[in-house]
Input
Amino acid sequence: MTAPDAHAARIRVLIADDQELVRYGLRLVLEAEDDIRVVGEASDGASAVDAAIALGPDVILMDVRMPGKDGIEATRDLTARLQRTRVLVLTTYDLDEFAFGALQAGAAGFLLKNTRPAELVAAIRTVATGDAVVAPRITSKLIEVALPYLAPRTHQVQDDTLSVLTDRERDVFVHIGRGLTNAEIAKAMHLSESTIKAHFGRILVKLGLPHRVQAVILAYELGVVGPTG
Output
């Protein structure tokens, strides 16, 4: 009998960063984990796109500022082409408009480069399951800083977009936009957390959104929440 492939259940990661030393350090951290496998590296956005298409990784660690095609362009390209591949943005500054741009382009998470190794590994595992790793309140803070970069939608677009939601789902959507967690929404609406989770899942499907980060961004773009919530 053939032994099972030891790599079959591993999370396949591509590292994209223009600094060789950073890539080396990330590889050392990740390859120490039994459930993570680094399948490739890229030194700029264009090569990251090519490598991702060729290798089909589960998660891409994407630096924002790279020569040529930057991380934002690469993220936008990849999220349009590879729906199962998640992009986890790495940046030096916590309120970097470039990082926000990557989130708006479809990235599933946002981390600082000084994040502790254990937190990086946990983030990769979270993103690989299809969830986002940016805490809701941090997401809201990022968006408020980047409000000038958002293109507001008209009232007609708002009505058309939200018409697919039930009244209860609209209420949940507003709370999501305000940065509340599922537990906090459940408390505010006097419902169980599992019920809120179910509503949230339906909201993502109906609005065609990949994860919570994009839901918060859309709430701001539609004007259902603003800087003061």
About this structure: DSSP finds eleven helices and five strands in the chain. The first helix runs from residue 20 to 31. Strands lie at 11-16, 36-42, 59-63, 86-91, 109-112. The chain has two domains: 11-134, 147-222.
